[in-house]
Amino acid sequence: MNQLTIKRGLDILFALFAIIVLLGVLMIISIAIKSDSKGPVLFKQKRLGKNGKTFEIYKFRTMVEGAEQKGKGIFQDTNDERITKVGKFLRETSLDELPQLFNILKGDMSFIGPRPPLTYYPYSFDSYSDEQKDRFNVLPGITGYAQIMGRNSLNWEEKINYDIDYVENYSLVLDLKIFILTIYKIVQKEHIHHPESADSNMKQLDKKA
User: Fold this and answer.
1) Residues 192-204: pLDDT tens digits?
2) CB–CB of 209/166 below 8 Å?
3) TM spans, by residue (predicted)?
C-alpha cells in the first residue's frame, strides 16, 4: 500500500470524525452567517482539482452576496467593505474553510495539498507549463506547503513553485509537518492579508522528509 493510498484513507477517517465533532460549530456558524447578512450560508466556486478536473469548492460565505461582481472582483484586502462582520472573524480563524471537509469526503480534496486555483486565474489549465502542471498530480488541499511558507504574502509563481516542491518530495511525514505548522500560522494569524516575507525558519522545512 503506497503513501497516497494511506493518505486517502486517513482523509476520509479524519474528515468524518471532524464533521461529527464539529457539527455544533458548523450549525452555529451557519446561523450567524444568516443572521449577519442576506444570502446563502455556503459560497460555492469552480476550481481546478487533480489532473485539472473542475470541481465545486465549498466555503462558508464571508462576503456580501454577489461580491465577485462588485468592488475589486476576485481581489480583496483587509478593509474590503464586502467582507461581513461574521465573515471577518471566519477568515481570521480560517473557519470559513470547514465546509471543505465535505469536499474531502467527495474525493475532490485532501487535508494537505496544493490549494485549488480558479479555473481561469492565474491561468486556465492548458496555460500552465508542463512543469507547473505537476501540482495537479495530487488532490488539492485545505492547506499546503505554500500556505505555511507565506500564504497570501506570496505571488502565484512562488506558490506554484512550492506546490511543485511538495509533489516532488511528498511523504506522510511532510504532511504532518505542514499540518502542525498550519495550526501555528492560524493561531499567529500570519499572512492573512498583508504582503510579508515568508518566515525564514519555515524555509528550512525539510522537503525531503
Assistant:
1) 544 433 333 333 3
2) no
3) 12-33
